[in-house]
């Protein structure tokens, strides 16, 4: 019998509907017929949307149930290839973590790398964050762009906790909360999925990276200082939004 979390994967797009503003922003950012690597793709909604707009997409997620769901709902967009990016207008899905996902593709092939939906804080340390930026630098073409979306943990650390809204779909209820552990310096992310008969709980530790930390590690690995936005309309992040989008451009090598 499927676990409740496996069932949850099949209803992911109901819980988190496609974001037309995000898709429009990315469509304007990514070159026409560009190659996109998405890390932590979840149900594959963004990857499939970009493939349908003519991009070549390689998308990874660590959750096997999510990747299975993404493949099963990609219709004619999915193409199973292990020899580089798929043709334009197609997406390849694979099971991999963030660091491994960037090493699946050939170096200097991606125009854009996406790490959306608060995926980045699943890295465990500053050392792993440094590896993340190094792998991203290696995977991107010169002048390529790394896009990171994540929660602003400055406010969460000050307040001590964040209770996210209850979500429900397919007879399931999905509870999520985050609280700061000052002794570990990390965020405890607790989730609960329940139906009418049973429930499952999971707990993960997240690392509350700050915009300053991202900028510092990115600069060390050869990226621009970064542009921080407070929404998908392109407005500057002013610290009042609960999340931000950071854009880091790989500097063109001097000849």
The helix fraction, in percent, is: 25-40%
Radius of gyration: 18 Å
The N- and C-terminal alpha carbons lie at a distance of 58 Å
Q: What percentage of amino acids are in beta strands?
A: 25-35%
Q: What's the SSE pattern?
A: HHHEHEHEHEHEHEEEEEHEE
The helix/strand class is: alpha/beta
**Which parts are unreliable, with pLDDT below 50 for 5 consecutive residues or more?**
none
Largest sheet: 7 strands, mixed
Number of alpha- plus pi-helical segments: 9
Set out the fold topology.
Elements: H1 4-10, H2 12-15, H3 20-29, E1 35-39, H4 45-52, E2 56-61, H5 64-72, E3 91-95, H6 98-102, E4 110-115, H7 126-139, E5 140-151, H8 153-159, E6 161-163, E7 167-169, E8 172-181, E9 186-194, E10 199-206, H9 211-220, E11 227-229, E12 243-249
Parallel strand pairs: 1-2, 1-4, 2-3, 4-5
Antiparallel strand pairs: 5-12, 6-8, 7-8, 8-9, 9-10, 11-12
Structure overview:
- The protein has two domains: 4-152 and 210-249, 3-Layer(aba) Sandwich (Rossmann fold), CATH 3.40.50.150; 154-206, S-adenosyl-L-methionine-dependent methyltransferases (Single Sheet).
- Helix 7 (126-139) links the parallel strand 4 (110-115) and strand 5.
- Helix 7 (126-139) packs across helix 9.
- The protein has nine helices and twelve strands.
- Helices cover 29% and strands 30% of the residues.
- It has a seven-stranded mixed beta sheet with strand order 3-2-1-4-5-12-11, with helices on both faces.
- With 255 residues, it is an alpha/beta fold.
């Amino acid at each position: 019998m499927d676990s409740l979390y496996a069932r949850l994967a099949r209803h992911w797009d109901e819980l988190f509907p496609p974001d037309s503003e995000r898709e429009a922003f990315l469509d304007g950012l990514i070159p026409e017929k560009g190659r996109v690597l998405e890390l932590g793709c979840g149900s594959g909604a963004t990857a499939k949307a970009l493939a349908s707009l003519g991009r070549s997409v390689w998308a990874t997620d660590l959750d096997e149930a999510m990747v299975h769901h993404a493949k099963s709902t990609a219709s004619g967009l999915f193409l199973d290839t292990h020899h580089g990016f798929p043709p334009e207008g197609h997406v390849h899905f694979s099971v991999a973590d963030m660091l491994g996902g960037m090493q699946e593709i050939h170096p200097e092939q991606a125009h854009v790398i996406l790490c959306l939906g608060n995926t980045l804080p699943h890295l465990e340390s500053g050392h792993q964050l440094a590896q993340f930026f190094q792998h991203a630098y290696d995977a991107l073409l010169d002048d390529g762009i790394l896009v990171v979306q994540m929660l602003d943990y400055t406010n969460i650390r000050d307040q001590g906790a964040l209770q996210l809204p209850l979500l429900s779909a397919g007879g399931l209820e999905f509870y999520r909360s985050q609280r700061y552990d000052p002794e570990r310096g990390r965020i405890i992310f607790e989730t609960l999925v329940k139906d009418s008969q049973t429930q499952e709980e999971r707990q993960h530790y997240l690392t509350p990276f700050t915009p300053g930390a991202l900028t510092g590690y990115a600069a060390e690995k050869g990226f621009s200082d970064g542009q921080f936005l407070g929404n998908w309309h392109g407005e500057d992040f002013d610290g009042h939004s609960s999340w931000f989008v950071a854009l880091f451009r790989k500097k063109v090598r001097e000849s």
